[in-house]
Amino acid sequence: EPGSPLLVRASFGTLLGAFITRAQQHRGEMALVIFELEGDKAVRESAGAADFERAIADLGRELRRRLRACDEIGRLGEAQIAAVLPGCDEPSLNLVAERLRVALEGAELSLGSRRVSPSLVMAAIPAPLGPASSAERALEELMQALDRARGAGSA
Predict the structure, then answer these.
(1) What is the pTM of this model?
(2) What is the DSSP string of 13-52?
(3) Which of 84, 45, 50 is nearest to 67 (CA)?
(4) Each residue's pLDDT tens digit in the chain (155 positions)?
(5) How far apart are CA 38 and CA 109, in angstroms?
(6) 8 near 75, Cβ under 8 Å?
(7) Half-sphere exposure of residue 7, counting CA atoms within 13 Å on the CB side?
């Protein structure tokens, strides 16, 4: 998206597929994390579409600053940002994801004349790397994890 550090969903999915293939070939590990801005519809309505889009781009920039150069981020939905973390093993995943969530919730986003700290729902999974793995399957599992996190009321 112009002016945004976020890949659009299709580009993110293509890149994720390449990461999965590479991890399978080299017996590597990787993880996926997704963040969703809570109350996104109310925020969009009160701030307006242009300010909301800038706030999502700001959130993406904040996430980009906290990731390694080899990590990639993309926008999966209206208020959803995902990251693929190559080389991130399962024991490290929850620690890394929680540090990212705390950092992002501590950031201030501009919504017109207001500055707000975002409230986020987060989910993190080790990437499925079996023989039948694909970007579509990985994203499906990530969205299911996000649904569970929403249902739990926390991540």
Answers:
(1) 0.85
(2) HHHHHHHHHHHHHTT--EEEEEEEETTHHHHHHHH-HHHH
(3) 84
(4) 556 888 999 999 999 999 999 888 888 899 999 998 887 777 778 888 888 888 888 889 999 999 999 999 999 988 899 999 999 988 899 899 989 989 988 888 877 777 778 888 899 999 888 887 899 999 999 999 999 998 886 44
(5) 13
(6) yes
(7) 15
Of 120, 8, 102, 106, which is closest to residue 53 (Cα–Cα)? 8
| Euclidean distance between CA atoms 132 and 48, whole angstroms | 42
- Say if residues 18 and 131 touch (Cβ distance below 8 Å): no
What does the alpha-carbon distance between residue 112 and residue 134 come to, in Å, rounded to a whole number? 40
Which residues touch 18 (CB under 8 Å, ≥6 apart)?
Answer: none
- Compute the Cα dihedral for 86, 36, 118, 154 and give only its sign: negative
Nearest to 135 by CA among 36, 26, 10, 27: 10
- CB atoms near residue 152 (< 10 Å): 10
